[in-house]
Write a structure and sequence with these properties.
This protein is of the alpha/beta class and 259 residues long. The chain folds into two domains: 107 residues, Elongation Factor Tu (Ef-tu), domain 3 (Beta Barrel); 127 residues, Rossmann fold (3-Layer(aba) Sandwich). It has six helices and eleven strands. The strands form two sheets. Strands 1-2-5-4-3-6 form a six-stranded antiparallel beta barrel. Strands 9-8-7-10-11 form a five-stranded parallel sheet, sandwiched between helices. Helix 3 links the parallel strand 7 and strand 8. Helix 4 packs parallel to helix 5. The protein is globular and about 60 Å long.
C-alpha cells in the first residue's frame, strides 16, 4: 500500500520566541482530529523550495517527488482551533528548515507527516533528569509541563545566549540550570560533569535526554552503563551530530541500530 502523502499545513504566524528560537503556528483542518495530548511528539516537515507555488508543492507531495525533510517536535496543539506550534532553532542561513522558518509568514505552507508517539507518557519516578540543547528544548519543555506538580529532580539546558531562556511551567521541585554555550558545534562535557556529580539517594529515576549525539552517548553510558538505570526508564535520543547534516545523521543512527 503506498504511503499517504504529507498533509499541507499553512502558517498562521511566526514570531521570534527568543533570539535563537522561532515559533511557527500552523493550521490545517486535519489538526482537529489529532490527539490533543501530542505535545512532545516528533513529526516530519517537508520543506517547499523558495518561491515554489502552493499548486506545484501540492503536486510534488501527491506524486511523492523528493523534498527536503526535517524532523521536529510538536510544541503545542490546539485541536479546537486547528492549530499547532513548532519551534525552530534559528542558526542563520546554514539549514533549510531554519531558513524556511525565518521567511515564514501568514499564508506560507509546509508538508507535515505525523505526529509520532509522545516520548514520556507516564511519570512514576522518585527523581527526574531532563537534559536538552536548543534542538531538543521543545521535547524537554513539553515533558516538564506534563510532569506532576510534586515532581523532583534536575533539568539542564544548553542555550546559545542568555536571552534564550524560556518561560514555561517547571515543577517547583525540579532544579533548573541554563548553561550558555554560544557554539553548539564545540564539544563540551559541562553537562556530563554535572550529571556525574549527582548524588541522589536510592530510588527510581526517569530521564528525558536529547540533543547532540556525542553528549547523549556519554550520558547513556553514565546513566545506564555506570549507574545501572533501567533502559525502560530512560529516554535518550541523539537529535543531531556535530559535523553531520540530518540526512547523514539519520543514516548513521540506522547503521548503529543494526550493530
Amino acid at each position: 500500500m503506498p504511503k499517504k502523502p504529507p498533509l499541507i499545513f499553512t502558517v498562521v504566524s511566526a514570531l521570534n520566541l527568543t533570539p535563537s528560537m522561532i515559533r511557527v503556528t500552523l493550521t490545517a483542518p486535519e489538526i482537529a482530529h489529532m490527539d490533543s495530548g501530542c505535545a512532545g511528539a516528533n513529526c516530519k516537515l517537508f520543506l517547499p523550495q523558495q518561491d515554489q507555488t502552493l499548486a506545484d508543492f501540492m503536486h510534488q507531495m501527491q506524486t511523492g517527488a523528493r523534498s527536503v525533510v526535517r524532523t521536529y517536535t510538536v510544541r503545542y496543539v490546539r485541536t479546537e482551533r486547528c492549530e499547532m506550534d513548532i519551534d525552530f532553532v534559528y542558526h542563520g542561513d546554514t539549514g533549510p528548515a531554519s531558513v524556511w522558518a525565518k521567511r515564514a509568514k501568514p499564508g506560507s505552507f509546509v508538508g507535515f507527516a505525523g505526529p509520532g508517539l509522545v516520548k514520556v507518557t507516564s511519570f512514576y519516578a522518585d527523581k527526574y533528569l531532563v537534559v536538552a540543547d536548543m534542538s531538543a528544548l521543545p521535547v524537554a519543555a513539553a515533558t516538564l509541563e506534563a510532569m506532576p506538580e510534586d515532581a523532583k529532580g534536575m533539568a539542564i539546558f544548553n542555550i546559545l545566549t542568555e536571552q534564550d531562556q524560556q518561560d514555561f511551567r517547571i515543577p517547583k521541585g525540579i532544579e533548573c540550570h541554563w548553561i550558555v554555550k554560544p557554539d553548539p558545534h564545540a564539544a563540551s562535557d559541562a553537562i556530563l560533569d554535572m550529571v556525574k556529580k549527582l548524588d541522589w539517594p536510592a530510588g527510581s529515576v526517569q530521564t528525558c535526554i536529547a540533543g547532540e549525539s556525542g553528549l547523549v552517548k556519554k550520558l547513556r553510558q553514565e546513566l545506564i552503563g555506570n549507574r545501572g538505570y533501567p533502559k525502560d526508564d530512560c529516554y535518550l535520543s541523539g537529535y543531531w551530530k556535530i559535523g553531520l547534516i540530518e540526512d547523514e545523521h539519520q543514516k548513521l543512527k540506522r547503521a548503529e541500530a543494526t550493530q
